[in-house]
Amino acid sequence: QVQLVESGGGSVQAGGSLRLSCVRSGDTGSSYSMAWFRQAPGEGREGVATIDSDGNTRYVDSVKGRLTISRDNAESTLYLQMNSLKPEDTAMYYCAAGPPRSWKYLTELWYNNWGQGTQVTVSS
To answer: Above 80 in pLDDT, residue 101?
Structure first.
């Protein structure tokens, strides 16, 4: 059983930066694909970025060039560096883990382990 714990959320002004972290415990094997999803109030969960064990990544168009996903397999930690934040980035951000080929899909159905989320609020 994989446990995921996110941290690093907070409140920033537009143009600011945050770095989210997600520590994985339980099964710490590095073959998992990992991802960040977000959910704004009243909306569905949206895939933001994915990464496989080799560092291949995929991003939703709205965050390309501003958000960067990375992972430290030795530390079983996933990161999301968030720069040039916009008010529309405001959401609860969730870390997720899935089988190796999940990274190709920004769809929550491909991920079977989830963290509790960390809130990101961007004010204008």
So the answer is: yes
